[in-house]
Amino acid sequence: MTSDTAIHLTPPRKITLEFALMFINDDELVEITPLNIRIRKAVMKETDRARIGRQPRFKSLKD
Asked: CA-CA distance, 37 to 24, in Å (whole number)?
């Protein structure tokens, strides 16, 4: 890539709180600030997400 190459990015969507709550997955959170509403991963590091994904979701009741 050279410095003459232009990258065209689409602008971020303006989302409502209701849309964000309907849109998120189990591993995501809705972050609300006075100026923005964001959807983000609950665990930010990819390696930590992989480790948590391998753990059982619920503990056994037999213990």
From this structure: 12
DSSP state letters, 6-48: ----PPPPP--HHHHHHH--TTEEEEE-SS-EEEEESS-SHHH
What was the pLDDT predicted at 48?
A: 67
Evaluate whether 39 touches 30 at the Cβ level (below 8 Å).
yes
Q: pTM of the prediction? A: 0.51
d(CA 11, CA 29): 21
pLDDT along the chain (63 residues), means of 10: 79 90 89 89 69 63 55
Euclidean distance between CA atoms 36 and 24, whole angstroms:
16
- Cβ atoms of 42 and 48 within 8 Å: the answer is no
